[in-house]
Amino acid sequence: MNMEEMINKYFRPGRLPHIWCPGCGNGVVTGCVVKAIAKLDLPKDDVAVISGIGCSSRASGYLDFNTVHSAHGRAIPFATGVKLADPKLNVIVLTGDGDATAIGGNHFIHACRRNIDLTVVVYNNSIYGMTGGQYSPMTPTGSKATTAPYGMIEPDFNLTELARAAGATFVARATTFHAQMLSDLIVKGIQHKGFSLIEAVSACPISFGRQNKMGGPAEMMMWQRDHAVPIAAWDKLPEEKKEGKFPIGVLYEVEGRKEYTEAYDELIAMAQGGK
Amino acid sequence: MSRVLLLQGNQAVVEGAIAAGVKFFAGYPITPSTEVAESLAEKLPQVGGKFIQMEDEIASMGAVIGASLTGKKVMTATSGPGFSLKQELIGYACAAEIPLVIVNVQRVGPSTGQPTSPSQGDLMQARWGTHGDHWLIALTPASVPECFELTLRAYALSEKYRVPVILLMDEVIGHMREKIELPDDYSEFPQAERKQPDCKPEDFKAYATDESLVPAMPAFGSGYRWHVTGLVHDETGFPKGTPAATLAAANRQRAKIENNLDDIVQVENYRMEDAEFAVVAFGGGARTAYETVDMARKEGLKVGLVRPVTIWPFAEAQMKELAGKVKGILVHELNCGQYVHEVERAVNGKVPVSLYAKYDNEPATPAQLLEEVKKAMAAL
Amino acid sequence: MSLKIYTNRCKGCGICAAFCPKKVLAVNELEKIEAVAPENCIQCGQCELRCPDYAIFVHKEGDEK
Q1: Can you say whether residue A73 is alpha, beta or left, with left for phi > 0 and alpha for psi between -120 and 50 degrees?
Q2: pLDDT digits over A155-185, tens only?
Q3: Using 50, 70 and 90 to split pLDDT, how confident is the model at C63?
């Protein structure tokens, strides 16, 4: 299946063009999600896509699966309910950096801890785009935002490290420049039995790029190319050369840790056996 | 075969939930509702259901909405501060028309208040707690057996009308132990069923309705793929913010409830046949009122009790009718006066309406309420 | 012609033009992408891979089944 056929198959008819601004990376990330589902040939009825609120979370409405555009920060709790109630569904969460790590931060770490089989794709554009450019917990220190006119003084989350520390069992990162890698990582995340995080570094040319003089959409994509380092190379990089750069690829993966819904099925067997 | 048990109200809710076919509970520990979670943590897996203790009350609401989308009957339970936290997603469930039941065992507020003391202070919050115009149902049990019955009824209404139903308990009812007779086999209880589409999946419009105004709701994974959103949406389920779409959504969500008040609103009358004066009380407050009415009758006072079982939507017709039957009404509630304003609005000056508000952490005694009844009657 | 452009989806962001190694593409005065030198296309797929709007597809030879 070529890309055009994938778009025709997995997007709801008549819903394109999408609402995202010119050059927004959300379309690339969403395309990578669709490519991953196509590669795995998942039946559409067996996929649930749950999003929160914000620019990236509009993705669910375009996709022809069982879809929920939930509430701000709450995509993961909704998804937890869907997955636990019907574990046969492949549950994919599409969320943004503000949605997942600020208002939804508590839900995020607890879903990691439970190791529930969700595939969470965080569209990280470093800013609140829908509301016009306010800082998020993933806005890099020093960057400008409409609510940080003098520059962001707070340190930003390293989300992949946070996920790992909280108990996620598959943690990866790619960028919209590395679109092929991104869809490959989403494939691995969906295949992984347990909580998967894929951080998709994306560009918001309008609300982040302009304020921070990053250039246009193409320049922001080139920035990703020039600052992302594949993990194998990253591991060999001396500390001083890591400054300002970030690793991409599979950053952490562990097999064999009990997945939550499987653990619950064992609990049911125990509860019923004890009768 | 049946068994006679001595149960708390909270435990009777759990039995009602199992009998209703609940297969999913998400919650967070909070006094005085915690027994509901504890008991379902034990019982749900025994019937193949799932229990999860979420990281907070908001997450609990999110999880039950998600589980409801898979076709399961779902419950969450909370009190005071937790009920406040749940409000945003109660609004989501109203907007997206998700069947679910929220148990709120009211305690004294605001804030942490008095966690182990009874109150009916969430009455208005149960109706208007979330932002925006919305319509939902709240039921108020006044005994342990009624906790069981109204839990079953909550599912019947929630599934039929695709609306969140609040089981608005109070600490008196939640923690009171009473005799209850339950069958050994719950399979005799009718299982509320969610309307399913009768069209092909490709023709399915998620919020298209027939004359019932209630859209069909296929489960995720059933082959009918649809989009759920808290944004204003049209019959396709996709966001549409035009004035016409906004009006259509609000009017239908209102009409599906307000066209069916005869089915939804239940009011119990106690010794009202020849009553000249009515006490209006509900939940834990009604327990005092039954006794007060009996005491008044012994003294020759023609007093009766009108007990709203459905607390929302408001029993407008019943209260209007009451105003034509009695000479005066005393509303007794365990708060500073919330329901009384609704009663006054319905009665509209036809007969005097007075209030016995009890908000000192303790329910009224029958004697205290009788004294208030006498005062009100003397003032007629 | 191996390039397929959905003009209605294109928002003229210019990403495809910037990443095209053969300068096949340019954003026109209507802020839509246009194949200005289609004969130079080597079907590398960079435009399709990076387009955020699913507005351009490369159909390689032998791709049409």
Answers
A1: left
A2: 999 999 999 999 999 999 999 999 999 999 9
A3: low
CB contact under 8 A, C12 and A4: no
Q: Measured between beta carbons, which residues in chain C are less than 8 angstroms from residue A21?
A: 11
Any idea which fold B267-378 has? Rossmann fold (3.40.50)
pLDDT one-digit tens code per residue, A5-31: 999 999 999 999 999 999 999 999 999
Tokens of B70: 């898979």
Confirm whether A112 is domain-assigned: yes
Per the document, the length of chain B is: 380
Q: H-type helices in chain A, by residue range? A: 3-10, 26-40, 59-62, 75-85, 97-98, 105-114, 159-166, 179-191, 217-227, 231-236, 239-242, 260-273
Closest residue in chain A to residue B218, using alpha carbons only: A66
Name the domain count of chain A: 1
Q: pTM of whole model > 0.90?
A: yes
Chains A and B touch (3+ CB pairs under 8 A): yes
A44 exposed, middle or buried (CB, 10 Å; 0-12, 13-18, 19+)? middle
* ipTM associated with this complex: 0.98
- Please list the residues that pair with B100 across neighbouring strands: B164
CATH 3.30.70.20 matches C3-58: yes
Domain that holds residue A218: 25-273
Q: Would you kindly state where each structural domain of chain B is located, as residue ranges?
A: 2-188, 267-378
